[in-house]
């Protein structure tokens, strides 16, 4: 299985939606607590993962998202609260194209809109979310209401105006760009929620991952009770993601250093497969939208791995 | 490096171990039930915590329902209610400290002792009074908290009482002629209303905004009363009322505040005459009411509360009393609040709810403006203009109102402040943190698990 070793600790990995062999990795020095950050752009070749570009930042990087309309554009979420926009096609000196500084605390995640392709959303430890347009130098709107760090934001793949947020205030909220208040406030867990994602095949299904070690799957039309609780991780679930290719498949990365694959419809709530190639927290996770079954993870051990779910990593 | 330590604390919370099967219960240490961005303090077993905060209704002096009730009955009612609510055996109380301002000093100390026996507290428990004017109730809480911290005892009762029907504000005897030589000493002799006019004039608080502030106080209190919000903090008082004409006595139960005027508006208040100064701004409508009432707060160490399995209503975090110019004594909170908040290691922005005593709309609105506090965070259930200001009880009364409000808000309110100005030129403030009683998520049944079954059943 191809592996790439980053000098800093991995926080996020994302496949390009345009080039199937390409992926970006956001990293931060000293586990993201203090120090610099580096964004790596990697190419998967027969000889393994090869770095094609790298960008240094003064503070750690916690997340990265590829543009959905321009294959060479990506945006990274930085510990100093800024969002940094990079263009792989631009001359070396031109990057970052922009540094969007509005969040007052660490920027924790960024998600690019699949429907309205000029928009992206960022979440921050300053308890807010901000929606940005490529055409505008400042954010379009700020969404407040969370009462503790917001750890994750994700656009609905079905509706261009809808996104969700997961927060340390133990709630997951659904937002509509056209409304300042959340359209749904889901008290998803009794403990901090670190991640959430939308099902790509059913616009009402979401999954949430918490430091209570569980993943829960919800139908947003009946938020009183979860559809399923997936048990198996031994520590906080840092990232959950639905498969782009199968309705009931989802993957997770955890502070228990493992990456797991689940069929939430299967019942029983136990993982289908698990991989423990990381020797530190598994933090970043992505499933390739272009190659079915290909999955990538990155962790605090500095390893970024790409493999097929039918193989051992 | 502060940055790094904050990041470390955020990450540390994510890594904290969550026991299997406690998804419905959350311990304060690892729950995210806070509104401040970062956990600034851990949980310590020697924290001083509040397990009960109750008050009598506040009623108008000379006209209200408690006009014929003496300090003994008021205190005995809140003592007894506190013991009943917590199940603490009376002999466990290490000391009772009672804030009282206008009552005759020695007699009041004696009444506080007599009230103990009315409430079934044994003679082995000591009692004393404290008088720092309008902050006496808060001072009582701070004194008990300090004594618990010092290890003098582990359970203490702080109370406050005022019977303004029987003991109106007055000055006895002559005035020392030397006062003329000290302008600040002269300030101490000013009627409180004159100090209010001074604040309004010096800091440009106009009549209109004072009346609006007063109307808002009535409106918020009326809304809170209509919503039943005061039910949790009020103890009904079984007492008697004398008919002023016939002298006939009848037994009554007083269970609601009677000073709130739901129909008060800035316009209706604008018609009132000023009291202290021609062309002034302070009227009976935008000043606190003269009121009877009592309140009591039970404090103990967290260790003791856990041992007794008592839900923790709040944690006592800091207290500060400060001095200011007596002729503008109303500015006290503007100095005391930053001092108390700083002592708690916090910033003003971290405070979710303020109970700032509305001695006068002039000084209360000045303090809110001066501190740059969002008005929505101040006195969400109205203040002394609507509810009344029973001097010695106000500190404990505000604490009861604050902690019950924070409990209702749950995780969205983590820190609260009680503050007031003090006649003769002082201010006091205390910071409270929401306890775990405010953080009770409902347990959720996990599919396919037997978490809600007893341990015996699970074998």
Automatic annotation (TrEMBL), chain A:
InterPro entries: PEX7, WD40/YVTN_repeat-like_dom_sf, WD40_PAC1, WD40_repeat_CS, WD40_repeat_dom_sf, WD40_rpt. SUPFAM superfamilies: WD40 repeat-like (SSF50978). WD repeats lie at residues 100-142, 143-178, 186-228, 230-263. One of its GO terms (biological process) is protein import into peroxisome matrix. Transmembrane segments: none annotated. Keywords: Cytoplasm, Peroxisome, Protein transport, Repeat, Transport, WD repeat. It is found in: Cytoplasm, Cytosol; Peroxisome matrix. GO terms for cellular component: cytosol; peroxisomal matrix. It holds the Pfam family WD40. GO terms for molecular function: peroxisome matrix targeting signal-2 binding. Belongs to the WD repeat peroxin-7 family. PANTHER family: PEROXISOMAL TARGETING SIGNAL 2 RECEPTOR (PTHR46027). This is Peroxin-7. It comes from Raphidocelis subcapitata.
Automatic annotation (TrEMBL), chain B:
Keywords: Acyltransferase, Fatty acid metabolism, Lipid metabolism, Peroxisome, Transferase, Transit peptide. Its main location: other. It comes from the Eukaryota. One of its GO terms (molecular function) is acetyl-CoA C-acyltransferase activity. SUPFAM superfamilies: Thiolase-like (SSF53901). It is an enzyme of class 2 (transferase). GO terms for cellular component: peroxisome. Residues 48-302 form the Thiolase N-terminal domain. Its EC number is 2.3.1.16. InterPro entries: Thiolase, Thiolase-like, Thiolase-like_sf_Thiolase, Thiolase_acyl_enz_int_AS, Thiolase_AS, Thiolase_C, Thiolase_CS, Thiolase_N. One of its GO terms (biological process) is phenylacetate catabolic process. The keyword Lipid biosynthesis does not apply. Residues 311-433 form the Thiolase C-terminal domain. It holds the Pfam family Thiolase_N. Pathway: Lipid metabolism; fatty acid metabolism. It is found in: Peroxisome. Belongs to the thiolase-like superfamily. Thiolase family. This is acetyl-CoA C-acyltransferase. It comes from Raphidocelis subcapitata.
